[in-house]
Amino acid sequence: MHLFEFHDLPNVPATIRLTLLDILAFCNGPVRDYYGDLCRTIVHEAETRGLRTVVELGAGTAPLTMHLAALPAARGLRLVACDLYPDIEHYRELTKRHPDQVQGIVEPVDFTLRHDWGPGVLLVLNATFHHIPPELRRQTLAALTQSSDRVLIFEPIQNNLVSMLLALTSFFPAIASPLWLTRPGILRRVLWCWLVPIAPLMFVWDALVSCLRQWSGERWQTELATIVSPDRKPQIATTIHSAVVRW
Ligand SMILES: C[S@@+](CC[C@H](N)C(=O)[O-])C[C@H]1O[C@@H](n2cnc3c(N)ncnc32)[C@H](O)[C@@H]1O
Question: What is the largest CA-CA distance in the chain?
């Protein structure tokens, strides 16, 4: 069963969608250094394979692109951020701030379809693959494979009770997120997290559904075996609360 997430509903207003993304970035940034860990993995992967372009797909507010742009070790990488619902203002601002390194694509990019990103491309997806409905997942894996030299998929939750309990606790950082003073959108977060406090509830619902939508390590193995040629060597590493899949 593929339950809905508020984030996937096309008629959810942008102000609420952005608040949900702010909460996610708050949980994964200041609350735990999750993005820092991911960026170290991305740089290592790009370096060891000689890839010069990193494309963040389903980027939302492009947390990985932002973190990478601030990382001296990633200086030689070209960074591209895109999404089906691009955060246009933010992507323009990112491109302006790092004109030699970052390209935020302001048109919608659907990663279930094949794209030509040029040579030497590493595609990265965080907290995003599980948004793809089951019937489109194989097509998406094929499209990602054909569009890149390497793919890195990160998921910060898993389909188990521990992960769901942790997902429930995300209600507290969600309530605290308006206090993230260095992040633009404070008034928006005050509105949706304090005055009309629906965003924390929507976020927790989405987090629980995200857990249910996760593939197990075995499922990843089986699915990739049918799509990816053996020379891409799929690697799947799961913990109780996260997954890193690469091929
Ligand atoms: C939970 S958010 C994660 C955002 C970001 N990766 C992060 O770590 O903060 C999932 C993102 O996937 C995007 N998305 C969902 N389906 C997509 C598709 N088919 N193509 C591109 N982006 C998609 C959504 O618009 C949303 O921004």
Answer: 54
